[in-house]
């Protein structure tokens, strides 16, 4: 890995004087906010949530509410440097694949092409990868290994706003999947996971498989077994899916840019993000449609079908079973988007391919975590590992994820075995 310049480590933007003053005031007020949060956590936290977790949740909500997006980006490392710093801290080999279209794949442990989990991180299209997410990925990998499932964890590094908007991220996920398939990975040995905006990107990717955007490369569904390219390089031509992708897990997916649900309008006071936060994030995403790494795109008219999966036309998701076998969707009972996620899973995804003519139907599973917040499993790892490398106690959803992945990895696939 070549040495990165200061600009390559950060967003290359300095805080203005007024922003420095504002951030200083935010952090000066933080002890008072913490005191209030401790009182609330002691007496008013939801059932099943520990005191420490409740304080962490409300503190993150406070920071999300008071720090602007430009301020957050100026204070943050980019995704690849975050991964490099974390890997060195964990005494793990740094492995970054630099693909076309500014696409990166960061590996937790060695690269593999037998069983792979590809993770698409969240962050409302405006935030980079964060260390708690990497701690979660490492934990899942270790738990799977203990259950006899050795798996490679690949983390997608994609371009965020303001550098690029829709449909760049769909293109980059397609590049990454195409690259993994080109190394010899069978689709039935691939799981793709995304939290929050990462879930939105995955749903956009599935929409692209079912309804290809002409300006982007695609991976064409096909059930005719063919040999995959032996080269690990990614070519512009499509690589067919010789079988459906084994599994997709959507963790607190961002399923709509314009919610009117009860959970959204309640402002979900125990969640990490507020209605105001998500309204601002959605406005930014929508205002950057078509900003595609300097390449103009005219595919604006139907952009909402890809960015707003909850409100797609009827029949949009028919064919889902031809591109993925199993879908797990999870939401927290305390999160802002809970009602929208439940509706999307139960009333839209689960009913895809219900016609008599459908040849395959994806297995859709919905889990609502009691007391859970947005992206709840990541909160298990905010504190990092304990002394000696042991992780803190995990919530009720994390073991469900491990079990679901194990089940998918142990399913026999005659096409893959032949």
TrEMBL record:
Signal peptide: none annotated. The chain crosses the membrane at residues 20-43. It comes from the Eukaryota. GO terms for molecular function: hydrolase activity. Residues 117-352 form the Alpha/beta hydrolase fold-3 domain. Keywords: Hydrolase, Membrane, Transmembrane, Transmembrane helix. The keyword Transmembrane applies. SUPFAM superfamilies: alpha/beta-Hydrolases (SSF53474). InterPro entries: AB_hydrolase_3, AB_hydrolase_fold, GDXG_lipolytic_enzyme. Pfam families: Abhydrolase_3. Gene3D superfamilies: alpha/beta hydrolase. The keyword Transmembrane applies. This is Alpha/beta hydrolase fold-3 domain-containing protein. It comes from Agrocybe pediades. The lineage of its organism: Eukaryota, Fungi, Dikarya, Basidiomycota, Agaricomycotina.
